[in-house]
Amino acid sequence: MARPAVVLPLPEELPGNLVISGYKMAEDGGGIVLRVYEAFGQAGVLNLRIGAESGPVYETDTAERERLEDYPVNEGMCRIPLRSHEIKTLYIGWYGH
Questions:
Q1: Burial (Cβ within 10 Å: 0-12, 13-18, ≥19) of residue 57
Q2: What are 58-95's pLDDT values in tens digits?
Q3: Residue 90 contacts residue 57 (beta carbons within 8 Å)
Q4: Band of pLDDT at residue 1, cut at 50, 70 and 90
């Protein structure tokens, strides 16, 4: 059965100190993985607009094996804070997976 078309999550607005360094299909095929880091020593917030067909959003390890921290999605938006020089690997799942 074909997977329905999905809206990929994109930053609502990317602060100048945050860098998206990777964006790919998750190894398990159940979503996408986004790598983001804070580049200038200033804490920041990544605001992602998540499509209605997106599932859970959580931080994972680089091998995508561990679920480290969940981020709630409210009204299609997900707020992800980053500390100074922090790197995060985010898993954004499809609903039903």
A1: buried
A2: 999 999 999 999 999 888 889 999 999 999 999 999 76
A3: yes
A4: very low
Task: Tell me how far apart the alpha carbons of residues 97 and 92 are, in angstroms, rounded to a whole number.
Answer: 11
Task: Judge contact between 23 and 9, C-beta under 8 A.
Answer: no
Question: Which residue, chain included where needed, has tokens 């200033």?
Answer: 42
- Which residue type occupies 21? S
From CA 21, how far away is CA 43, in angstroms rounded?
A: 17
Q: How many of the other CB atoms lie within 10 Å of CB of 12?
A: 13
Q: Give the strands of the sheet with 44-49, arranged side by side.
A: 10-13, 44-49, 77-82, 73-74
Contact by Cβ (8 Å): 78, 57: yes
Q: For the full predicted model, state whether its pTM sits above 0.90.
A: no
Q: For residue 89, give the amino acid letter.
A: T
